[in-house]
Design goal:
- By secondary structure, the protein is α+β, with helices and mostly antiparallel strands.
- The protein contains three helices and five strands; from the N terminus they run αβββαβαβ.
- The chain has one domain: HIT family, subunit A (2-Layer Sandwich).
- Helix content is 24%, strand content 22%.
- The longest helix is centred in the middle third of the chain and has 17 residues.
- The structure holds guanosine-5'-monophosphate and zinc ion (ZN).
- The site of guanosine-5'-monophosphate has 14 residues, from strand 2.
């Protein structure tokens, strides 16, 4: 996707602080941190949102899931806890239309969200 900012990050056309990368996913620091630890985990393939997950591409969700706790260990938030957020669409507050998981930690987060 030519105009997608996260595809540009995957292609290294835009720099980012990469925390983890393999052939299917990338994890990098959010440019506007909402917590001392705030990273984004994305599929390398352009998937617009969680709405676009179906039987054909669902394996990427399992792959991201197994990597979340590994990332939490690497980031030092495995024991203290953290929040995983997927925003979807307008009401969900999604601003970048490439599926991404926010992982937030190293501070107590309020609930419910505003
Ligand atoms: P959303 O609101 O779509 O759930 O989250 C998009 C996130 O992407 C925001 O937290 C925003 O700070 C982050 N973001 C937007 N542009 C860039 C960028 O160019 N680099 C990085 N590292 N993060 C970005
Ligand atoms: Zn994209």
């Amino acid at each position: 996707m030519e105009d997608c900012i996260f595809c540009k990050i995957v292609n290294k056309d835009i720099p980012s602080n990469i925390i983890y990368e393999d052939d299917k996913i990338m994890a990098f620091e959010d440019v506007n941190k909402m917590a001392p630890v705030h990273i984004l985990v994305i599929p390398k393939d352009h998937i617009p949102s969680i709405n676009a997950i179906d039987e054909g591409n669902k394996d990427i969700i399992a792959h991201i899931s197994v990597n979340i706790s590994k990332l939490a260990q690497k980031l030092g938030i495995y024991d203290t806890g953290y929040r995983v957020v997927i925003n979807c669409g307008k009401d969900g507050g999604q601003t970048v239309e490439h599926l991404h998981y926010h992982i937030l930690g190293k501070r107590a987060l309020t609930w419910p969200p505003g």
